Each structure stands twice: as structure tokens, then as C-alpha cells.
């Protein structure tokens, strides 16, 4: 996913015309993608539509993922799962894409990677006491972006549920 335009300071420009709002900015966050080496330091931007990480060392480097692509998020404090406390996420993947693909706009000198091809992402704040509040913001934004396929499946599922009155009416009709 391309971040689109960035301001002079290197921060992502939020698409406010389409209802996107900035929910949280968290400086001092490292990122670990799949089995790649941990990258640090960076600034995490959480909007109502996406999660964006921008390197503090190289402002032209960043990652972005839509909330619709995040299938799971959780706080991880288990040192056997990962060496430091982090916000763990699983991202739905597209198997035929290459992790090293470059999705930068020709007008932009910014290199942005599409995280929809990464299966796991860990966000590691320099202050681990921020994990619970980051998790809460993730929860709020995930609720703002329900999976449309799940809603359709739930609606179909509800077609199979009948009330007791409907069952009695159907039974009476078949006995006549």
C-alpha cells in the first residue's frame, strides 16, 4: 500500500476527505516484519483506516497496512514468543506478491512497502507501558473497519435461525 503524499516533515498525509482521521502518534517504536531484522527507531501513526510506521533515521522509508488487512492484534509480553514486549499483529497475505516489491509513486522519492504480503508484524514501543493504550486504539480502529465478508456471512447465517413461533407455524402447516 502506498502512503501517498507526505508532508515536508516526512509525516504521512491523512486522507481527511474520505473520513480518515489520525487517532494516535507514537514516537520511539521499532518494527519487526515476519522474520526480517528489527528496524528502529520510528514513529507509529494510527489512523481510522490504517497503521503507518515511518523510520526516524530515513524519512523516505515507511510501511503501511489497512486495518481491513489486519486479522489479529494482541499485546505480547511472553519472552518465549518474542524477546521484548510488543503489539503483535497478523496480516492477511497475498501469496503471489514479493516482499521486496517497491510500491513507490513515480512522483515520490519515498519507498513504501506493502505490508499485506507480510504475515506478522510486531510493533515495539521504547516504553512498554504504552502497549495497553496502543492496543486500545487498535481495537477502536478495528471496530471502525468491519470485514465486509464477515458481515455478509453473518447475514446469511441468520437466515437459518428461526423463532419458536416460526417453528410452530411450520409444524402446524405440515400436519394439515
UniProtKB/TrEMBL annotation:
Recite the UniProt keywords alphabetically.
Answer: Cytoplasm, Nucleus
Q: Which parts of the sequence are annotated with region: Disordered?
A: 147-176
Return the Pfam families for the record. Answer: Voldacs
InterPro entries per the UniProt record, alphabetical:
ICln, ICln/Lot5/Saf5, PH-like_dom_sf
Please give the biological process terms from Gene Ontology that the record holds.
cell volume homeostasis; chloride transport; mRNA cis splicing, via spliceosome; spliceosomal snRNP assembly
| Major location category of this protein | cytoplasm
Give the subcellular location. Answer: Cytoplasm; Nucleus
* Entry's Gene Ontology cellular component terms: cytosol; methylosome; pICln-Sm protein complex; plasma membrane; spliceosomal complex
The Swiss-Prot or TrEMBL record describes its family as follows: Belongs to the pICln (TC 1.A.47) family.
Q: Indicate what this protein is called per its UniProt record.
A: Chloride conductance regulatory protein ICln
Organism annotation: Pisum sativum (Garden pea)
